[in-house]
Amino acid sequence: MGSSCSRPHSLNEAEATENAKSADIDRRILQETKAEQHIHKLLLLGAGESGKSTIFKQIKLLFQTGFDETELRSYTSVIHANVYQTIKILYDGAKELAQVEPDSSKYLLSPDNQEIGEKLSEIGARLDYPLLNKELVQDVRKLWQDPAIQETYSRGSILQVPDCAQYFMNNLDRLAEVDYLPTKEDVLHARVRTNGVVEIQFSPLGESRRGGEVYRLYDVGGQRNERRKWIHLFEGVNAVIFCAAISEYDQVLFEDETKNRMMETKELFDWVLKQRCFEKTSFMLFLNKFDIFERKIQKVPLSVCEWFKDYQPTAPGKQEVEHAYEFVKKKFEELYFQSSKPDRVDRVFKIYRTTALDQKLVKKTFKLIDESMRRSREGT
């Protein structure tokens, strides 16, 4: 009798416990949903080599805990690979230019360096690179210093020589140390293509996030074969950050050497602007690699790019740099308004001059973006 009388009571207790658990779960889901609603989604887009991955790494360094020792060590093989790839591009490029250029003698290496070049080019063609050591560094440096290789390096824009070339060649001895641990600066210069989608959550006010907005930034590969992965990320985006490497006006694509990189960037920006799901989305345009642009504009006329063929240079020096930059900026502004339907022109559109390797500038830029988006949400 006692057991039959106590059973309903036990059931009620169990139901009450389950109901309490269920309510806790519901509350947690609601809290997570609310929290998710306060996380603003940013999409980092741009063509290959635009500097997106460097911006992404800067975010980790600036607004998160940075890279721990394990992560830093994981870049050792990447950095060593960058050295081998660079020297292979230059050695193979010298041989190619010696065959096609009228003054072929400029690209002829000494017999000793030809032998070294063959050895290093063979290493650079492998999938598994040996770690740099003193002997290999001596070979790399000897080849790098050869006048024919330096002449070839000056033609880097037509050979796909990576931007990190000079930096790593200047640091060869350190890179080959037995206990070498990549620095933050090394990691920022390291070149590795983004495959798939990577994401990071951060606040421009740092890890504490007190009083600051929280953002989730998505970076996807910029090469043509990676862009099919973009579409499924387009929904619910608060802002698109589009990276345009303005220094690449005289270069061709890695994946298509018949296509100028700046023309590809123009067409890609135009396509992104016209996506229906971005009707109310803010656009932040990064005119990136200004540091390289600043040096190059003194030597290579902007008009070599079809889009900029109407450019008229002014006085040389800093005045010319600013004049050329403003011209490029205006071209992108015109493209934005041409590609935006009348009902879209009121969305937030900002242009920022950036150098992805400049940590202070990247930090300042993201704080400005944070302020701009906050004012936009508040309607001010």
From TrEMBL:
Residues 1-25 are annotated as: Disordered. One of its GO terms (molecular function) is G-protein beta/gamma-subunit complex binding. Its cofactor is Mg(2+). Keywords: Cell membrane, GTP-binding, Hydrolase, Lipoprotein, Magnesium, Membrane, Metal-binding, Myristate, Nucleotide-binding, Palmitate, Transducer. GO terms for biological process: adenylate cyclase-modulating G protein-coupled receptor signaling pathway; gibberellin mediated signaling pathway. GTP binds at residues 49-54, 188-194, 219-223, 288-291, 356. The keyword ATP-binding does not apply. It is found in: Cell membrane. G proteins are composed of 3 units; alpha, beta and gamma. The alpha chain contains the guanine nucleotide binding site. The helical domain is required for self-activation. Guanine nucleotide-binding proteins (G proteins) are involved as modulators or transducers in various transmembrane signaling systems. This is Guanine nucleotide-binding protein alpha subunit. The lineage of its organism: Eukaryota, Viridiplantae, Streptophyta, Embryophyta, Tracheophyta.
